[in-house]
Queue: 2 jobs
Job 1
Amino acid sequence: MDPQEAGERQKALSLLFEPKTVAVIGASDKPAKLGFHVMKSLIDGGYEGKLIPVNPNAVKIMGLPAVSDVEQAPGAIDLAVVVLPATLVPGIFKACGKKGIRAVVLITAGFKEIDDPEGGEMQDALARIAEKAGITVIGPNTFGIVNCHKNLNASFTPEFSMVEKGPVALVSQSGGFSHLLAFMAMRQGVGLSKIVGLGNRLNTDFGDMLDFLMQDPATTSIALYLEGLDNPLPFLAAATAHRGKKPVVAYKTGRAHMGDEASLSHTGSLAGNQDIYEGALTQAGILNVNSSEALLDTAHALSLCALPKGPRVAILSGQAGPAMAACDVCEAEGLKMAVFSKETRAVIHGLLPPLALRKNPVDMGPAWYDSGAIRGIVQAVMQDPQVDGIVLLMMFASANREALSVLSQCLGSRNPEKPITGCLLAPPGIWDQEVQALEEAKALVHLPTPERAAKVMVNLWRYAMLFNKSEDRRQSGSP
Amino acid sequence: MDPQEAGERQKALSLLFEPKTVAVIGASDKPAKLGFHVMKSLIDGGYEGKLIPVNPNAVKIMGLPAVSDVEQAPGAIDLAVVVLPATLVPGIFKACGKKGIRAVVLITAGFKEIDDPEGGEMQDALARIAEKAGITVIGPNTFGIVNCHKNLNASFTPEFSMVEKGPVALVSQSGGFSHLLAFMAMRQGVGLSKIVGLGNRLNTDFGDMLDFLMQDPATTSIALYLEGLDNPLPFLAAATAHRGKKPVVAYKTGRAHMGDEASLSHTGSLAGNQDIYEGALTQAGILNVNSSEALLDTAHALSLCALPKGPRVAILSGQAGPAMAACDVCEAEGLKMAVFSKETRAVIHGLLPPLALRKNPVDMGPAWYDSGAIRGIVQAVMQDPQVDGIVLLMMFASANREALSVLSQCLGSRNPEKPITGCLLAPPGIWDQEVQALEEAKALVHLPTPERAAKVMVNLWRYAMLFNKSEDRRQSGSP
C-alpha cells in the first residue's frame, strides 16, 4: 500500500470510529431483525451524531424519519451499517459509493465463511466494488464495532454499551470471542476503548487496525483474538513497524486439529501451524498468551503498569497459603524469587515477629492490625533495588478489614515504577470499591486469584523480555 | 486407631459441626479482638443453639450473659471456640476436660508454625492434654469451621455466612486459602456445605475429615487444599478406604523451592516432593488439580453431574470462536472430539444450513432464532452413543437472547446421564438467573469461560479414569 493509500485508509477508519452521521441500511423496528438491534445499540448507547434509518417499507423507525434508500438521505454520511441479505449487498455498496460513503460496517454473513464456493466468489466481487468505490469495510460476517469513549455502538449488541470506558482495545476475528471478552471485562471491571469484530476481513485486517489503534489516544494496549490469516504478512509488517509503541497481546486458537477445520468454515481462513504463528508474532513484538483469561488479564495489566526490569519478584501476602500458590506459578514460569537487600531484611525483621514468613514470600498476617508495619514492609520492598516486581495478596473480611485501608493508603495514588499485581479478595459487594480505587489510581493491577496475579507478573516479564532479547539481538547483529 | 476410638472421634466431630451449645472462650465486644468477630459470626450467622460467651471481665457480651470461666457455664457444652493467647490454652484445655467438653475449635496461633522450637513443644504438650481429656481439636492456628447448612459459623469471619448453601465441602490447611475459595465460591455462585480450616492439625487431620465428610449427607464432593503433611499415611489410608464413595479433589502447593520453605513456617509441615504427593493422592483415588480455579470448578462439577463414560466430547456452540478455544483445551488435555453417529449427522444436516459448522464443534449460530433446531441438535447429541460428554457454549445478548430460553427448555430439569459443562455468558446481572436455574436443576455445570468449561470436562474424565484404570489394575492382579 503506498503512503497516500494508507493515509486514505486511516482517514476512512477515523470516519468509521467517529462518524458524524450514521446510516443503518436494513434498519427495522421488528425485534427479530438484526436491524432492530443495531438501531437500539446506537440509540441506547447514546450516539450523539445524526442517525438515519434506511428501509424502503418504513416512514419512521424508533421515532427517527427513515429514507427508502441511502442515496435519498439528506447530507453527507460518514458511516453505513449494513444488515441486509448477502445478495443485496453489491447493489448497496454501489449506492454507498455514489453517495460518497467511505466507511461501511458490513454485518451481513453468507460470504467467504460458507461451505459453498459461491460465498468466496461473492466476497471477491464485493471487494472489487469496494475498491473501485473507495470504501473501507469492516466485515462481512461481523457483529460490528464499538467506540466506547465516543458512545458509538455500531453493533447488533446493545449490551456492549454497558462496558466500562477504559484503555484496552479488543480486536477479534470472531464475534463470539468479542462478546466473551467484553462480557468478561464487564464482570472483571476492565475498561475498554474499542471493540472490533473483523469478521471475514474484506479489506480491513489486523494490520489496518494496528495502524489505526497505535494512533488512537484512547487506546493504551491492544488485545487480539486470531484464528488464522490467509495473508498474514501485512499484519506482521504493521506489527513490526509499530513494535514496542503500545503493548499488543494475542491469543490464537486453532492448535487442535478439529478446531483448525472449524476455523476454515468460521471466518474463511485456515488457522494454520500454531508454532509458526507464535514465532512470527513474537518476532513482531506481540506477546502470545493461551487463554481468554490471560488475554484480558495481560492486556489490562499492560495498559496500567510499568514493566519489570528483571525477573526478581517479591510476594507480599496477608496469608501464607495464597502466597505459596503464587510462588509455584512464578517459579514454574521463569520468574525468580527476589532475595531482599540487607536494608529490606532489617526493616522486615524489625516489623514482623519471628513467627511470620519474613524471607520471600512475606506473610504480613501478624501485621494485620499494625498499619505502620504494613506500610513499612510494602515501602521497603517497593524501594528494594533487588526487587523487580511485586505480587500482593490479601484475603479480606471484617477481622482484617483495616489492613485493606492501610494498603490503600501506603500504595498511594501514583503509578509505581515497579509493577504490582495483586489479588485482594473479599466477599462480593462489600469492599470492591476500595480495590477498584487502587486500580483507578494505577497503584496495582487487580486479578481474581493469586495464580492469575502471579501469571500476569510472568506475562509482564515475558513482554519485557521480548524487547530486551531483540535489543540484544540487534546489537549483536543477528537477524 | 481402633474402631472404638475412631467411633469416638467421629462422635466428637458431630458435636463439633452440630453443637447444641457453644462456648466462646475469649469472647469480646471489642472489634479489635478476634473474640468479637467469632461472636459476630455465630450471632449474625444465625446459630440456633445456645451461645455462651466466656470472659472474666464482662457480664454481658453482645447482649448475652457471660461467664467468667468455662467451668462456671450452666449445663453441658458441646463445642468450645478458643481465641485466647497461646500461653493460656493448656489451662483452658484442662478446664474444658473437667467440664466434659469433647470438641474444641482452637483459633489461637503461635504453636508449631512459629520459628521458635518452643512453639512445637507447646503444641506437643497440648496434644497430650487433649488426648488425656478426650478432646477433639480443630487447629490451632485456624480461622475456625463453618457448617453452612446448620448456620454454624464458628470462625472469625462473619462474611462466611454469605456463602450459598450447597454440596461442596472445603477442607484446607491454610486459612487464607479457605477464605480465597469461599470468596470465589460466593462470586461464582458455587454452594458449600462445610468450610474447615485444619491449621496445625493438633489431633484432627485430613483423614479424620474424610471419615466425617463421607458420612455427611450435606456433602456430595470434597475439595482439599494441602501444603504438606508430617504424617500423610493416616490420610492416605482414609482416602483409600473411602475410594470412590464421594469425589475428592486436591490442590497441593509447594512445588516451588521457596514455597516449600514457606510451608514449613506456615503450618509446620514441609510441603515435600510434589510428584510423590500427586502419585500417592492419585493412588488413593483423589484427583489432583493445579489451581484454585480448577479446584473449585472441578469439585463443583463433581457434585453436580454424571461422569463421562469415555473421552469423546461434543462441543456445541452458539459461536465458532469460543468453540475453537474449548476444542484446543480438550484435545491438548487428552479428550477426543466425538465423531457423530450417522443419525446425529442426519439430524444436524437437516437442521443447520451448509454455511454452519456441522461436524464437531457444531456452530448453532444459524439456529439462534429456531427453537426447534437447537432442541433437535442438543437432543440428538445427548442421545448419540458416540458422545460421552458435551461442552455447551453460548454468548448471549438481546439479539440471540431467545436461544437461552430454548436451551433452558430443551436441557430440561433433569440431571442428564452425560455430563454437560458450559459457558453461557451474558453481560452481568441481566440473564444470570436463567443460567443459575439450569445449574440448580443440575442440567449443566456452568463455568465463566469456554476454556474452563472444557478443562472441567477434562477433569471429569481424569476423575473417571482414576477408577477405570484401577479397576483394570485390580482385575489384572497388580497392586
Job 2
Amino acid sequence: MRLVVIGGVAAGLSAASRARKLDPALEIIVLEKTPHISYGACGLPYFIEGQVKTLDQLRVYDVAFFARERNIHVRVNAEVRSIAHQRREVLLSNGERVPYDKLVIATGAKREAARRGETMFAIDTWSDAERLGAFLRDAKPKTAAILGAGYIGLEMAEALRAQGLQVTVFQRANYVLKRRDKWLTQIVAEHLKRCRVDLRLNETLEDSTRYDMLIAAYGLKPNVRLASEAAIEIGRTGAIRANDRMETNLHGVYAAGDCAETTHLVTGRPAWFPLGTTANKMGRVAGANAAGARERMPGIVGTSIVRVCGLGIGMTGLSPEDASKEGMDPVAVEIEALEKARYFRGRVTRVQLVVNRRSGQVIGGVVVGEDGVAGRTNVLATAVTSRMLLDDFVNLDLAYSPPFSRSWDPLLIAAQQLLKLLH
Amino acid sequence: MRLVVIGGVAAGLSAASRARKLDPALEIIVLEKTPHISYGACGLPYFIEGQVKTLDQLRVYDVAFFARERNIHVRVNAEVRSIAHQRREVLLSNGERVPYDKLVIATGAKREAARRGETMFAIDTWSDAERLGAFLRDAKPKTAAILGAGYIGLEMAEALRAQGLQVTVFQRANYVLKRRDKWLTQIVAEHLKRCRVDLRLNETLEDSTRYDMLIAAYGLKPNVRLASEAAIEIGRTGAIRANDRMETNLHGVYAAGDCAETTHLVTGRPAWFPLGTTANKMGRVAGANAAGARERMPGIVGTSIVRVCGLGIGMTGLSPEDASKEGMDPVAVEIEALEKARYFRGRVTRVQLVVNRRSGQVIGGVVVGEDGVAGRTNVLATAVTSRMLLDDFVNLDLAYSPPFSRSWDPLLIAAQQLLKLLH
C-alpha cells in the first residue's frame, strides 16, 4: 500500500507524518517540486525584517530526518506534471511515473502576479525570500510599493520599514486584512500613518517605475491546476472541494492545505483560508484518513492574527458587514479599555464584538493591542466555535491578577456594552 | 426607595454603581467600616513588592466621586453592628439606625489568624498593607515565614523575596494554590526552589520566634457574622447562600462578593471562590436585582491566575483529583511545548488538560509559563463553560502568526495527546 503526497511543506508533511503514525507499514512518498521542504513559510517576512537571521532557522526538519525518523521518502525537485487517477499514478516532469494507492494533494497556493519583472518580488516561498533578501542586500533599494494590504502585505510593510525603506501600500479594496470592516480599516490606516507607511486605499499602482522595488502581496489563489486537470471537483471558492474527511470527489484522493476548501463553522459554507494552522489541521486529517482511520476536520471560524508595525491585530468569525452579506442580523460594539492596571504598564486594547441578534450568539470579533491579543482572540474563537450566547459570554469567568489582566477584561466590557444595545 | 450596601470595596461598590445605572431615582447608601473604599485589594502584594509605589495607586474612586458622579452616598468608618430585617434597618456601632428597603451584604472575607501579634501580618486590606509596609521600612526584617501556600501566600513570597528577605512558606496541606494536584504542586515547588524560597509542604510552623516576621496567608473565611445573626441562611461552604439573582433567603436582601456563595458550573454545586472577578460579577447582579431588574449570575468555573516569582500559573475547572471526588471519571494529560518559535524567544509552556471520560467534555486545565498564560487559561475557561467536547477542542481554530504563537498551540498539542489516551 503506497501513499503519495504532492507537496512538502505544511499540509503535505502533516499528512505524511500523521499517516505514518497510524500505519507503520504504509509506504509513503512525498513529492516536492522545489528544493525546500518543511519550513515555516509564515516566518519568511521576519527573515526580511531581520528577526530571523538565516532561512535555516525556519527549517523544521530535513529530508534525512523524514527518512530516518519517520520512514517517509521525501523527494525534492520532483515536480508532478499530471495525475492519472484511473491508472493510480502521477507523472513527473522528468517523465517518471509514480504509482499510488492513496493520494494527498497539497499543492498550496500561488500568486498570479509574482515575478513579473526583476524588481517585483513575492514572499511566499523559500526561494522568494532568498531572492528578495539578496536584492535588498545588493541593490539597496530606498523605496518600495507593496501591492495588497492583506496579512503578507502589512507584514512586509513592517519588514521593509525595519530595513529603512520608504513604503507605500496600494490596496484596491476599501478595507484591509481581508475583513470588510470600516472600524478595523481605520485603526490600521491610522497606525500605519504613525509608522510612516503610506497606505493608499481604493488605489492601484499606476507607475511602477517610481519605486525601487515592488512586493506582490495580492492575488493569492489556490493552486488547483493538477487537481482540476484530473477531473477533481473545484468548489465555488476556487479551491479543491473536499468533504470533512478531506477526501475529494475521487475515491482515495485527498486534498489539504492552501489548495483546499474547508467549512466555515459560522456560515456553514465552504471557505478558503490559506493559513498555516488550517493547512496543518487539514493535512493531519487527510493523512489519517488516507491511512485508513476515520477523522474529521469540522472546519474553521476564520481566526487569524497579524503584527503590523508592532501592533497586534487578531480576528475571528464574521465582521458585521460579512455577517450582513450572509443574511444575518449582526449587532456590533467597539470598545477601548486598559488590558492591565496602569501600575503594570497596561496598554489600551480595542475590542470589536459581533453577535447575531436573531440567535443571540457571538459570531465574531477583533482584538487590537500591544499585549494579550492572541489570548483574547482565542477566547473569541472558542466562544464562536461553541456558538456561545452573549448572555453566557458576558459572564465568562476569566483569569484575573494584576500582572496579567484586569478584573473586568476588555472582552467582558465589550459584552456588557453589547448587551445594552440588544435589550 | 432606599438601597443600603454593607461594604465599600469590590462587590459592594459594583452593586451600588449598577443599581444607580438602572434606577436613577433610588437612594443609595454604602456603609464601609474602614476608612478606605474602592481600591484594588488584589494589588496589595505588589505594593509590598514595590511595583505599586504608593497605596493611592490602587485607589479607583473616592467618596467624592461616588457622591458627584453617581449620586451614591458612601460613608466610611461606618461599621454595621447588626441587621434588623423585620424593621428593615441596620444598626451601626455608634447606635445609629439606617433604614433600608433593599439590602446588599458585601462584608467580604476575613482571616481568623491575622494580627495575633506584633510581627504577624495579613495583606487583605489597605490597613494591612500600610502596617506591613511600615514594618518592612522601619524594622528591616531579614527573615519571614509565610503561613499558607495559596495565591496570597505565594504572591507574598515573591514580594518579600523582591525586598531581599529570606522566605519560608509553611503549607499544612500537601498541595498548593488550593488545587489538589501533584503535577502543579511539583512545578511550583521546583520553581520556588530555583527562586530560593523554602517551601515546606505538610508542615506547620513550630517556632515562630525563629523568624523576624510572619505572614498569615491561610484560614480565609467568609465574613458572615452579620448575616448569620440576622437569620440569613449560610451554605455548606460557610458562605452566605444566595440564588442566581444573588438574593438570600430574606426577601430583598442580597449577598455578593467574598462573603457569598455562587455555583460552580462544572460540578453544579455551591462554591466559594473569594476572588475579585467573582466579587465584581456578583455585585453587579445583586445591584441590578436590588434595583428591580432581573439579572442572573450563572456561576463560575474556578478560574484564577497567579504570578509566582515571575512564573505565570493559570487554572480553571477541576483538577483530576477534584473531579474524582465529584464522582467523575477524569482523564488528564500534561505536556510541555514552546509557545512561540525560538527565533521569537518562545519559552516553554506547560499545559494540563482534564476531560471527563464519560461525557467527553473538557472540565479543567492548568497553564504554566512566562508568556501567554492568561490567554490560554481563558480559552480553557471558555471551553469548560461551554461544555466543549474534547473532539471539538482539538480542532479549535486558534490564532497563529510567528510573533504571537505557534502553528500547533500548546493547548492543541495537549488535546491531541489526550485524545490518544481516550481512544
